[in-house]
Amino acid sequence: MNPAIKINNIHKHFGDLHALKGIDLTIEQGEFFALLGPNGAGKSTLISILAGLIKPSAGAISVMGFDVVSQYQKARQLLGIVPQELVFDPFFNVREMLRFQAGYFGHGPENDDWVDEVLEGLGLADKAHTNMRKLSGGMKRRALIAQALAHKPPVIVLDEPTAGVDVELRQMLWEFIKKLNRDGHTIILTTHYLEEAEALCSRVGMMKQGEIVALDSTANLLNKFAGKKLRLTLGDVFLPTEIHSLLRGQEKGVFTFALSDMAQIELVLSALRTANIKVIDMQLNEADLEDVFLSLVGQQ
Amino acid sequence: MTKASKVSLIKISPRFRGPWTLLKKEMLRFWRVGFQTVAAPVITALLYLLIFSHVLAGHVQVYQDVPYTAFLIPGLIMMSVLQNAFANSSSSLIQSKVMGNLIFVLLTPLTHFEFFFAFLCAAIIRGLVVGLCIYLVAMWVVDIHVIHPWMIIAFALLGSALLGTFGIIAGIWADRFDQMAVFQNFIIMPLSFLSGVFYSIHSLPPFWQKVSQLNPFFYMIDGFRYGFFGQGDISPLISLCIVGTSFLVLALVTLKMLKSGYKLRV
Q: Do A100 and B18 touch (CB under 8 A)?
């Protein structure tokens, strides 16, 4: 079985800027994959190359075995991409847009049941005959997602799909996307909401300055990089220098330390005792994907 | 009714559904704003007809046995056909680019030829719809006879195809509305007004006659008019060859631009 996406040594230059520096990545069919990284890491450039909107300077990408440049028609048939920008066509209503989008991929009236399912699943059924111009921002975002799904693609790429979407809509969206994943669709997600990636995705790739700096299952990444988070309320104090390396954040007298093992708790507490600093409150949490993200890409 | 209608009036093979859908969308786009895209140019052409025929009728006789008002009508029809064919493809592309919704088409498996075909056909159809409406309204005002209907059809089709293609080039090239306005105001308008819509080029001094023959709009207007009156400033077959060749050259340039992804795919 061909992988859903196979990215082979992709480079992209924009003038002097080397935006992608030899990306290699394979995403298997049926995966729920998160592609994370700070702004400017190259995620959207990579997705645009996958979509055929940007030409690679070197390397190749295939979708289920079809090259996105030389076999672009077959590759795009298999791909549904939700663009990051909130774009819409002001001349048409939601249903018309979905029918057009399915039509571009060769689908006719036989696809209408699927269009109805997408409208229902994304809570757009009562807006089907509303002009795109008259939809709220959240509704436009949902219509954008519906458009990417209109031709029932087996591989779905969501580039920041929940930006500007409220919590209720976000939940509805994820329920629908999870159902699609259970039905066998491959999902590739980029998001700034790391808790979403952690909750939904089985595997994570993290990008920094045009390179993949981490690629593993979500569980492995959490084990490998994160460990524990120790939050101490200390008030307005100066920390002893020997524990500065463990400090990850400081806000209003609350200090957050990243610990690789439990033994480091005693190291922190003994340093505080020696410095005569009193602990007002203490919390110990499992680290999350945000900690992994910060430890890998946060120091720029 | 929330469920989609299962009735489709036209059965299209799945192979051709992509370009057909894009064509249908482009036609609906101009039809939805028909007052602006069809009614307004028809009214503008009729105003030209009213004013120029009122001012010049009786003072100007271009062809024997052809009243000036009748002489004016084919030129006005063709000018409107050309301007609207250009406006359709160029405005659709620049709007889609500026608003960002062209991405919905760029993400699809449509080939560069299918993209060209859909935008071209929509431009031709809008040009012909506007031209037909002007003709139907003008029939009420002036008695116009058609001598060579096939010439009229050939020049209307080729002329609208040529300007529709030029509109695609302009739409791809321009990044902003003001850049598009340069095409409209400094190329399309001067060439159409100086093409012999309101006069015969034989009424010009020899130097300006030569200059007029460099204007491709002249051949389209003159050939189209020949279809009505059986007489023109130049042989209609020469005009047909020039217009047809111009269309082929521009079509090849456009297809090359689309295939390379010029300004559409970075």
A: no
